[in-house]
Amino acid sequence: MMNGIQGRGVLGLLAAAVIVAGCGPAGTGTIRVSDVHPESYPTVQGLMRMAEALEERTNGELRMQIYHSAQLGRGETDTLQQTRDGDIQINRISAAPLEPYSDKIGVLAMPFLFRDAEHKWAVLEGEIGDELLESIGGGLVGLGWQDSGARSFYSTAPLEGPEDLQGLDIRVQDNEIMQAMVRALGATPQAVPYDELYSALQHGVVDAAENNPPSYYTSGHFNAAPHFILNEHVQIPEVIVASERWWSRLSEEDQEAVREAAQEQLAYQRERWAEMEEEAFEAVREAGVTIVEPDQAALDAFADAMAPVFDSHGGAFGDLISRIEAVE
Ligand code: BDP
To answer: How far are the Cα atoms of 137, 203, 305 from residue 142, in angstroms, in the given order?
Structure first.
């Protein structure tokens, strides 16, 4: 079968080249933006706010077209590759699958790294946060953060503590530290793209997974895995990244405008996040989900069970972990 480009002739090839560049003549054009979540989800809402800010700053020259609901690919590892290639110009992804694109950002997947949400934001909005964004490479450029709360485990069977996860097949993101964490719990990590996880839970391909309450709710996972334990083992933020291929063609002014727009959406995104978290808890409880709030002993048991991850993976981050811990 003839592919699209072959069928187009010389003019078609030129048009295709413009599409591959992802941008029309210097500084103009539509920016393809990817997100796995549905339109009403706080990450997409944040991107919409960023789009408004960017249009305003560039007098309508840079427009973001947001492809939400995983329209552009099969999971984030896939859309990250497309971003590298320049087919997607901006991607909103979790920091977890960014692990191979930075020697520092993986630190955010360390279990119980942050004392609480304030500590996390003091780190992300401070010097270390900038350092982490700047550390992103491999064809990507880090632009800014979004809130993603904290991740907890959920399962098809009741969960009271870490012992209930032993022997299970647990879906984790594409991230080595997360895989090590699940192994430390005596379970088997399984890589399943986010938008295929509902079916994997439903059909028993995996027994359990972990995520924040808004994702648990909007993905419908609560229907297939109605036992949620609020153990909050990691607080991995969301990241807005750009394709370097596209980025390097922008004028300095436009780069500045994109960076500022990415910064500007954060306050709004965090408000939407807080609202969505409440909504998610309420909705899943109403649907009959059991949310177990573990006591201190159960939380300590999770932290103890996951502690080996610091020995196996912590050393790679040098003094970054202690610098994060020292942030007030
Ligand atoms: C959600 C993140 C999304 C990830 C997903 C996952 O917002 O970016 O794709 O988790 O677990 O919380 O894959």
So the answer is: 8, 37, 32
Cα–ligand 1 centroid distance for 253 (angstroms): 32
pTM of the model: 0.91
Q: How remote is the CA of residue 212 from the centroid of ligand 1, in Å?
A: 8
CA 236 to ligand 1: nearest atom:
12
List residues near ligand 1 (CB under 6 A).
36, 43, 76, 93-94, 148, 173, 194, 211-212, 215, 238
CB 314 within 8 A of CB 106: no
CATH number for the domain that contains residue 254? 3.40.190.170
135 in any annotated domain = yes
For residues 40 and 181, state if they share a domain. no
Name every residue whose Cβ is closer than 8 Å to that of residue 267 and which is 6 or more positions away in sequence. Answer: none
Digit-coded pLDDT (tens) for 251-302: 999 999 999 999 999 999 999 999 999 999 999 999 999 999 999 999 999 9
DSSP 121-140: HHHHTSHHHHHHHHT--TTE
Q: Round to whole Å and give the CA distance between 274 and 271.
A: 5
**Per the structure block, which two tokens stand in for 129?**
């946060």
Q: Mind listing the pLDDT tens digit for each residue in 15-51? A: 433 433 344 444 457 999 999 999 999 999 999 999 9
